[in-house]
Amino acid sequence: MCRFFAFRSTLPVCESVSLCGMANSLTTQSRCDAGGESHIDGWGLASYDEEGEPRVTKSVQAAFSDLRFDELAKSLTTTALVAHVRQASVGRAALVNTHPFVHGRWVFVHNGTLQDFAARKGLLRDAIPDDLRQMIRGDTDSEHVFLFWLSQLRAGAGGLNERLGIDTVAATLQQTIKLLNRWFPTHKGEESKFNFVVTDGRLLVASRWGHSLSYLERQIEGSAGGIDRSPHAADNSRAVYIASEATNTDSWREVPDHSLLVVDERLELHATSLT
User: What angle do CA 144, 147, 152 make, to 5 degrees?
Assistant: First the structure.
């Protein structure tokens, strides 16, 4: 298990309260989540700059005890962010195994485990083209999944250019999950879990398969919620949040299991069944 928090917004915002200031912030979840489990095997934050390039910081320390996490969360102002706290299930606690994983403008995090990965990972490795397989630096199931999905995305779009359509991104993630479910079935009574988030800073897609997942749509005018807002904000300024667990008492909605939640460039939401 792991925990993640992500958002897209029409204006640059600072979401430090969701990351480290609320009762169930991501740092709180790193110490103890709703199920009573801790996620102390590292953290990572990816945000996008004004040119749309991801900036990633990682640590092998627990987020709740690492002052760098708190300092970074309070300093980041962006229109797209993905944060992750890790509970190591496959792969040692090491920087190369810490999420998010990044390639070009694409950022990826995983909450879950591919069951019996050690015995069956050859199925996945063999499906990754040589040039992408050579980029593997760690030993997690998650990094393998990311590069496999990138290969599906590249094949489906004819390349990994900067402005892929949301339909292609969603369809390739859906196909990836269907293949993973075939290759990594239930093992010793435990089902594989495929909660993923992918973004290029414009598009945001999350899957729920086996773990909890919620989303929140919110206007971002005014001063509530701890968000750093521009005085020139338009009336339609808004944000979409996706998280393993709701970080506050706002009107979060549960994403149905075995489904995709798709956030397009205009921040419109669409749900797609994975079955």
Answer: 125
